[in-house]
Design goal:
This protein has two helices and 21 strands. It folds into two domains: about 150 residues, Neuraminidase, CATH 2.120.10.30; about 70 residues, Thrombin, subunit H (Beta Barrel), CATH 2.40.10.480. It has about 220 residues and is mainly β.
Length: about 220
């Protein structure tokens, strides 16, 4: 339950141990000035600033249980998803519902059980392990799906959707739909993050980073 912020050379800058709210269900750090913590059990969102200090708490007590949450790229708003009512919900920064799109499973004509929700470049993505990423526009209209076999741990960066397969990282270009191998790790890694010129790996609790061209050269040896 400890959040730590690191510098670009991986030196710790700030940390914050948050125990009073229970287990963090998801952590959205795409906006470095407004970090979002979602607590499913407590049905609330906690916002932190760039010093990891709490700036706001948003209660999510609607008539349905909220299972997934993410920050929007605009309006200081948030996207929520309820598996019980199959609803995609948008709220403002006070937690007031501004839009509610119902019957999502009926809309995509699939039996879905999403485990991830994210907004990226004017689209909202719901990830389902069986059906992949289901894409919606900002008005709740279903616009298609992206699916990769035997893939996991997805990241969005620079108009690409990255994913892990065994010890490899692949990318899917969201503009030209090109799939590409990006890098490999010698060790099995638990998580990774894509930066402009390097990839950061989390291996057995340790942070390791390598230049992208170095990972490629290492893989080609």
């Amino acid at each position: 339950m400890k959040i730590t912020k690191y510098s670009s050379d991986l030196k710790p800058i700030q940390s914050n141990s948050i125990f009073s709210n229970g287990t963090i269900s998801s952590f959205d750090s795409r906006n470095p000035l407004q970090l979002m913590l979602f607590y499913k059990q407590q049905q609330e969102i906690i916002l932190l600033d760039n010093t990891l200090s709490q700036t706001n708490k948003i209660d999510l007590f609607f008539f349905e249980l909220v299972d997934l949450a993410c920050a929007s790229n605009r309006d200081n708003s948030f996207w929520l998803y309820s598996i019980t009512t199959q609803s995609l919900i948008k709220t403002d920064k006070q937690g007031k519902v501004t839009n509610r799109y119902k019957n999502i499973a009926q809309l995509v004509q699939k039996d879905i059980n999403p485990t991830k929700l994210i907004e990226y470049e004017n689209l909202v993505y719901l990830f389902d392990q069986k059906h992949g990423f289901l894409k919606f526009d900002l008005f709740g209209n279903y616009v298609g799906a992206i699916y990769f076999k035997n893939a996991e741990n997805y990241k969005f960066k620079n108009d690409k959707l990255y994913h892990k397969s065994v010890n490899n990282i692949f990318s899917y270009n969201l503009k030209n739909f090109e799939s590409k191998w990006e890098a490999s790790s010698v060790d099995d890694f638990d998580d990774y993050e894509i930066c402009d010129d390097k990839i950061i790996f989390l291996v057995d609790g340790k942070i390791i980073y390598e230049k992208i061209d170095q990972t490629i050269k290492q893989n080609n040896k």
